[in-house]
Amino acid sequence: MNVLRSAAVLAAAVVIGAATPAAADTSPSPAPSPALPSALYGDGDPQYDGVWRQSLALLAQHTVGVEPPRATVDWLAGQQCADGSFAPYRADTSTPCGAKTMADTNQTAAAVQALAALGGHDDVTEKAVDWLKSVQNEDGSWGYTAGGAGDTNSTSLVIGALAAAGEKPAEVKKDGRSPYDALLKLALPCEGDGAGAFAFQPGKKGELAANADATAAGVLGALGAGLAVEPGKGGAEDAACEKADGPEQAAANGAAYLADALAEDAHLVSALPGAEDQPDYGNTADAVVALAAQGATGQAEKSVAWLEKNAADWAAQSGPAAYAQLIFAAHATGADPRAFGGTDLVKQLGAMGPAAAEQSAEPKPDETKDEKKDESGSGFGVWWFVGVCLVAGIGIGFLISGRTKRQQP
């Protein structure tokens, strides 16, 4: 699920009016730029995705048994504003957050998921959860910004944060409506185009258009899951679309839609203007996680096998969030992230930040702590960066993992 892409993508989005995530990094170099914190993963401009990519990197490392360097965790926790929210990046944390600080639900929810998993920062996560509750919309949803129109991706990301912090998402209500109520209203019926999918947001006339990335997010949200899930048990391969009278059925319907979308080529295609015939690696990784969480392991394994063969260059160009996405996909399907199509995703991610201490009982001697990635690029990052586009005033978009959230006509 999830929202951050590269600054280059953001600039392109401003030009073409498309929504793209700001979570990607430009070419990582042997040492972080002197202008950036040494504890920050990646050396691309963190203006739009610093907290996002840090959160995904830390959560991914934790997922595979790697203890991130303390400085990286402290840096993330230190980005919090006094009201509990997180902005994409605060260069000077000694300056209090003000009206011009672009705090948002996506960065905040991602930080909660990472810090809750790592432990030891209950005060930070509690304040963040309180802030998220305070900006819940009347229909039970969340938008990218406080008070913004609710969307499937942001709502689902917050659900994951609430669950990670020990809350019961179904009991977090505004005017009697829970986030699950909001997701059900964004789920398409079983008749017509896009049957069973989730829309990102309703159109101007209230119409719902199927959106693959929103569907991946919606499946996880409806299941109460976060960005990182345990391998699914299988058994949900042939689920038919049925009227969604609850979040569980909505998740099953969404997974069926994704499985059908992936069936022919094992990957999703880009929704960016001019790139519709190109694979969307980030959305595909998100779909794998969603399918695995639902138990549709057959298609999830086929698609993760496609990622193993084809996603290495994309990840090398895209930065920490992309490596984290692939680690989540590998973990969810039981694949080995340390031997992912010939790439050690864990090593590559660790090489983009300070040296990490291995928690595994059997550390691998070939995994050096200070190896740095030697490939460059400015590709896309991860699922949830809706806000960058909203902040830039270029419409609806979800900037996480290389996907567009904008409704298609």
UniProtKB/TrEMBL annotation:
Transmembrane segments: 382-400
Gene Ontology MF terms in the entry: transferase activity
Residue spans of biased composition, Basic and acidic residues class: 361-376
Keywords, comma-separated and alphabetical: Membrane, Repeat, Signal, Transferase, Transmembrane, Transmembrane helix
Residue segments, region Disordered: 21-42, 352-376
Gene3D superfamilies registered for this protein in UniProt: 1.50.10.20
Domain spans labelled Prenyltransferase alpha-alpha toroid: 54-160
Keyword Transferase applies: yes
InterPro entries (UniProt xref): Prenyltrans, Terpenoid_cyclase/PrenylTrfase
Signal sequence residues: 1-24
This protein's record includes keyword Transmembrane helix: yes
Name this polypeptide is given: Prenyltransferase/squalene oxidase-like repeat protein
Source organism (scientific name): Streptomyces capillispiralis
